[in-house]
Every structure is written in structure tokens, then in C-alpha cells.
Design goal:
The structure is a homodimer. Helix content of chain A is 58%, strand content 0%. By secondary structure, chain A is mainly α. Chains A and B meet through helix 3, helix 4 and helix 5 of A and helix 3, helix 4, helix 5 and helix 6 of B. The structure holds a DNA duplex.
Chain lengths: 126, 126
DNA sequence: CGCACCCTGACACGCGGCTGGTAAGGTTAG
DNA sequence: CTAACCTTACCAGCCGCGTGTCAGGGTGCG
């Protein structure tokens, strides 16, 4: 069995147990649990924790940023809305149709749907 | 000339002049300047500011998050690194449909999957 | 000319994220 | 049984974000 307890995982990855739980709470590295609820860190989780650390210092990003990036992946509509908003800044002409973009078809669909939602200016909510 | 000064733009978009400068500092909405340095808000900027506001409240994101999203668009290397990291284990735990499964079983399943990811997923700076 | 606006920079302040620590209780192994 | 772990939940200090405000100086227009 190549799984470590949270304390062991902490010492070998340079995080604190507290932060391991926090990182899990952010949804970034979730350790499987034993039958009684103990977190079990396997090689995959350890590797992920180390690369996470690497990411943070190499690019000077914060856990919260990664949490947001995660959210973008879990909420395509949000990602689409942002895509749309950012693209409205570029003076480039309507370059909507992508020639080679297989996996993002469904995403493009979402974007369109929500861009219309957003640009249909309704700010009367009070 | 359909440009507004920062104070006018503020009152018509619901931001404060202070926040307009802050938003610009984050790189989110940059207004062109007059010869003497005054910010000139045109229809495009005003629309962008309103949509930004809409984004923030509709999806409950923060300006800092948007700043990070902007950074992702300006630093493809960072975006790639995140892509890489997330793809090494991205599943949706809250959506796992299995009703009840012995802990040890799905634990083994997870670990197996992750080991495979690790051994085969040699990310050679893709 | 004067007033009202703009600029940048700086300080202030509340709130919430990050991180540690601790308490109360369950689990594992000797 | 005991000791050393683990769990969750809470409280506390630090710090940065969001925001207001002020100071010192420039601009535009009646």
C-alpha cells in the first residue's frame, strides 16, 4: 500500500496538514478516503501537490487563482461569458467561426447562449 | 464627440471614478486619453463597464478573478501549465453517480487510474 | 481669472482569504 | 488501554483587495 496519511504527505510535499485540507477544500487536490474517513495520499496526489507547489512559485499565482481556474473548468457558462467579454475588447472583426476546434464546439454553443443573455442589457433589477 | 469624462462615465455606469481607475489599472477596461491625459469613455467602454458589472454580480466573481483571467489570456505559457496540471486529474466528484460503493473498491479504482495517468502522462512540455 | 473638473499618489479602513492552532471526538496499532 | 494519529469545526492573526478620501498640481471653459 503506497498511501500516506495527511501528516506524512505534508512532510514529504512541503505543505502543512492544514494546507492540505485547505487545498482539498478548494477542490484542487482531493485525496481518497479510507473506510473510516482518513485521507489517503497516493503517488498521484503527492505528484499533484508537488507540481501545484511548482506552479505557484514559478508563475507567482495564488491558491485562490487556481481555485478560480478550476471553477472556469467546472462552469463552462462562466468561461463562455468571460470569453465573450474579453473578446469584446479586441478591435478584431467578427472572427467567430473557428476552423479547427473540435472539442470546443459545445463550449462555443454555451458561449453564444450566454453572450446573448449578457448583452441583452437588462440592468433594471433593483 | 460621444465621450464622457470619468465622472460622467462613473455616474452612468454605476461605478465610482475611483473604481474606474482601479478597473483600468487591472487592465480590464482601459479608456483612451485626451491630449492632456484625461480619460475619455466612449460607447464601447461604457458598454464594457456595464457588462463587467453584470458579470460580477451574475456569476459572483471578483475583479481580482477577472484580472487573473486576463492574465491567462496574456500568458499562454501560464494557461498551458494550468491546462496541463488540471488535465492530470480532473473529475467531478460531486457528480459521481454511483450510489454506494465500498470505500476500498473505488479507492483502488481511483489509485489505479491515477497511477496510469502518472506513468503514461509524461507531459513533455506539451 | 476662477472654478470645476481631471491627473497621480498615498493613506485609511473593513472584509475576507490564507494559515496556524486548538478542542472534542473517532481510529489504529502496540 | 494508551498513545499517537486522524476527523471536523471553530477562533485568531496577517495581509492584500476593494474603496473612499485627501493632497498637490494641471486643464478647460465661461
Amino acid at each position: 500500500m503506497t498511501t500516506l496519511t495527511i501528516h506524512e504527505a505534508a512532510t514529504t510535499t512541503g505543505w502543512s496538514p492544514r494546507m492540505l485540507r485547505y487545498v482539498e477544500q478548494l477542490g484542487l487536490v482531493e485525496a481518497p478516503r479510507s473506510a473510516s474517513g482518513y485521507r489517503l495520499y497516493g503517488p498521484a496526489q503527492l505528484q499533484r501537490l508537488r507540481t501545484l507547489r511548482e506552479l505557484l512559485e514559478r508563475y507567482d499565482v495564488e491558491l485562490g487563482d487556481l481555485g478560480f481556474a478550476l471553477r472556469l473548468r467546472r462552469e463552462p457558462e462562466l468561461a463562455g461569458a468571460l470569453d465573450d467579454w474579453f473578446s469584446s475588447q479586441l478591435e478584431a472583426p467578427p472572427q467567430r467561426p473557428e476552423p479547427e476546434m473540435p472539442d470546443s464546439d459545445w463550449l462555443a454553443f454555451e458561449q453564444d447562449k450566454h453572450s446573448q443573455l449578457l448583452t441583452s442589457g437588462r440592468q433594471d433589477t433593483a
